[in-house]
Write a structure and sequence with these properties.
mainly alpha; globular
Length: 259
């Protein structure tokens, strides 16, 4: 299981109170793993209301739902131990249907800011205006739970947490990730998130796109350079849009492969 980029902000203590409270209510994290990790973390929050809210939210998750989730092979031992201490243990078996990434509990009805995500015909300019009028928590929810069009706009948001929420969205497709990997307009942090995700880095088109992006950290590119096919390696060796260190390394790989 890859570490959630959104969870990292909570772990580092870089999240404002209103967003922590929203997460404590179960209304932010888009994935089950992420939701439980954040709720467990917020049980030790310095704010009494947030601690109590996180506790109440965890208590509302039905035990059968938790047991089924804990039976998954990708659940960390620390999470199982935490819930064992609360008297909840993994189910005997986990079905394919229980491998969902949907949150285990929702805070309530979908926010009005996202209720129109399936509307057709809204142009990019009006969508950008709607997003610009949202509060920060609502933009976070739009980033993780909104439409593809919302994600395409918010991935460029100057706030790193918004972009991380986009990359945490369970709605994010491989095609979207490939497109993001090609963008020179996204932050290096976003490209690092892609590079740290094992599932995405199994996809040739995604990691190849990273090597061609001039914003990709050189160390990341060099780590995956040997996985390129001969054609892409040759193209990269003469691509003046990428750092010189990448071009030189590509040329050395080509020479070494000839010997």
């Amino acid at each position: 299981m890859s570490i959630s980029p959104l969870f990292d902000f909570f772990k580092r203590g870089e999240v404002d109170r209103d967003v922590r409270l929203l997460a404590a209510q179960g209304g932010l994290a888009p994935r089950a793993h992420e939701q439980l990790s954040i709720l467990m973390l917020l049980l030790d929050d310095g704010d009494t209301e947030i601690r109590q809210t996180a506790e109440a939210t965890l208590s509302r998750i039905p035990n059968p739902v938790l047991s089924a989730f804990l039976a998954r092979s990708d659940v960390p031992d620390a999470t199982r131990e935490f819930f064992a201490g609360r008297g909840v243990f993994p189910a005997e078996t986990a079905t394919a249907a229980e491998e969902t990434e949907e949150p285990l509990i929702e805070a309530g009805a979908t926010d009005d800011a996202l209720s129109a995500e399936e509307e057709e015909g809204e142009d990019r300019e009006s969508l950008m205006q709607r997003l610009s009028k949202m509060t920060f928590p609502d933009r976070l929810k739009a980033a993780s739970k909104g439409s593809r069009e919302m994600r395409a706009i918010l991935i460029r948001d100057p706030n790193k947490m918004i972009a991380a929420a986009v990359m945490s969205s369970p709605k994010l497709t491989d095609a979207e990730v490939e497109g993001i990997a090609k963008m020179a307009s996204v932050s290096e942090d976003v490209l690092r998130i892609i590079g740290a995700n094992r599932n995405w880095m199994k996809k040739y088109k995604i990691f190849a796109a990273l090597t061609r992006n001039p914003k990709t950290p050189v160390a990341l590119t060099l780590n995956i350079l040997s996985r390129l096919n001969a054609k892409d390696m040759s193209t990269l060796a003469v691509d003046r849009n990428v750092p010189e260190a990448v071009r030189v390394a590509a040329r050395k790989k080509i020479v070494a492969n000839r010997d």
